[in-house]
């Protein structure tokens, strides 16, 4: 009986995924009650019922311990995409719900009406990444660096000229903590001077920021952002991987984006340390990864995996959508290319391939598309915006055609829906390749897309149970954590505030130069010693030889 109640509770904990401490506490209570004081089955059952009922409120409602006070937290996200915003908002909302006051600087339109969050949107139009036609970058990823460079210049020149930003900068010391998105937001680092700050890294354990924190990720098994290799890599792949990661970092940090921004910032803030010095003082980084989905790698205590912190259990769908899905006799195909890769930018050629394919399918299709579509088959439902997670969570949804963005890939694993990724740019080919390797679906290349290929792939992924099995296993692994990722993120955020920047978390590696970090000075010294020894030995022998010959002659 004990075991069955135990598993029941475990199940409950897993379903609600509450604090593990409560789990232990509850089990200990149940254990003591069941074992020590109870003798007959009847009493045991009664007691158990009473104990369980008394404990249930604790299990259901207690999460983190209450915060020590209400903190003032500043989120600086002047350059982000609509999808990364979901990530930021999940943390901001969780903190605001705990009574902290959140101030947010962003390029996105305010969306949340939370009384404890106040948002300010700057209007520097170069930061509107959602207006960019990502398909233009499909074959030329280098063009992205040019785009980033232009945006960096615009931000550097414009951001601190805005009156509200100036005011925010003046009163920055009133905040208890600053939260920065570490991807493409270097322009805000003047804010963090002499302030505790943490970063959110939307692209997972991104190599450049990790190196700044003193953890150089090993390129022999961590795949660079811009290549689509899976692990294990071959010799050639490893060589390319190393070159790619150096190339990207060099262009970004040493040549194109940062140096120009640095020049602009130095002009406006002549007394501040360099941006990279300021970035190096980061207390903690919340990484959008989890080892169950991504590469398992050594991380610092200050690198916290919070992958899927934006994921939520299934909520009810709006009435019309729910009905459309429920009435689909053969299930539903969900098609969404994400916020940056907008469907509206798809060329007619590809749009027709999708329309013709969908007309041949017996399933119903839900397609996120930003414009009206003519000639749409009856089995296709078009919407500008969709509650993606709740759709993916519906058991009738059989497959997700995605662009392979990191957030979408996490949501689909969380809700256990097989995929057909059609990657477009940046890290999408890498994420897509990883999903195929894990058995969650089949990757298609945009360039090779045809109607028969798409029909065949859809039928395969829908009818072959192995994809659903693989992803549900991964989902199970992802859910099996001692606390939810969002609780973990909140706990560590408050931890940094409680300990004034938590300097004990800091890795000494962050303060070494790259020559010291790689022990190049020691290697140099060792070579010098060996060289000196041989040089001395050679000269000594030569002299000895000459003396010897001289003596012989005499
Ligand atoms: C906002 O913060 C206050 C305390 O500062 C708290 O009492 C209140 O519950 C918070 N509001 C919401 C909606 O969580
Ligand atoms: C580095 O961060 C700590 C708190 O985390 C802060 O007290 C200190 O002033 C910061 N140093 C610089 C140079 O910004």
Overall description:
The protein has four domains: 2-61, no CATH class; 72-217 and 274-309 and 486-510, Rossmann fold (3-Layer(aba) Sandwich); 319-479, Rossmann fold (3-Layer(aba) Sandwich); 519-554. With 554 residues, it is of the alpha/beta class. Residues 1-41 and 51-62 have low confidence and may be disordered. It is built from 20 helices and twelve strands. Helices cover 47% and strands 10% of the residues. One 2-acetamido-2-deoxy-beta-D-glucopyranose binds at residues 193-194, 196, 281, 283, 501.
Ordered list of secondary-structure elements with their pairings:
Elements: H1 2-16, H2 20-35, H3 41-61, E1 72-77, H4 82-97, E2 101-106, E3 117-121, H5 143-158, H6 163-170, E4 177-181, E5 197-201, H7 207-212, H8 235-255, H9 257-268, H10 275-280, E6 284-287, E7 303-305, H11 319-326, E8 332-336, H12 348-360, E9 364-368, E10 380-383, H13 388-392, E11 397-402, H14 406-414, E12 419-421, H15 428-437, H16 451-463, H17 465-479, H18 485-498, H19 514-517, H20 520-553
Bound molecules: 2-acetamido-2-deoxy-beta-D-glucopyranose (2 copies).
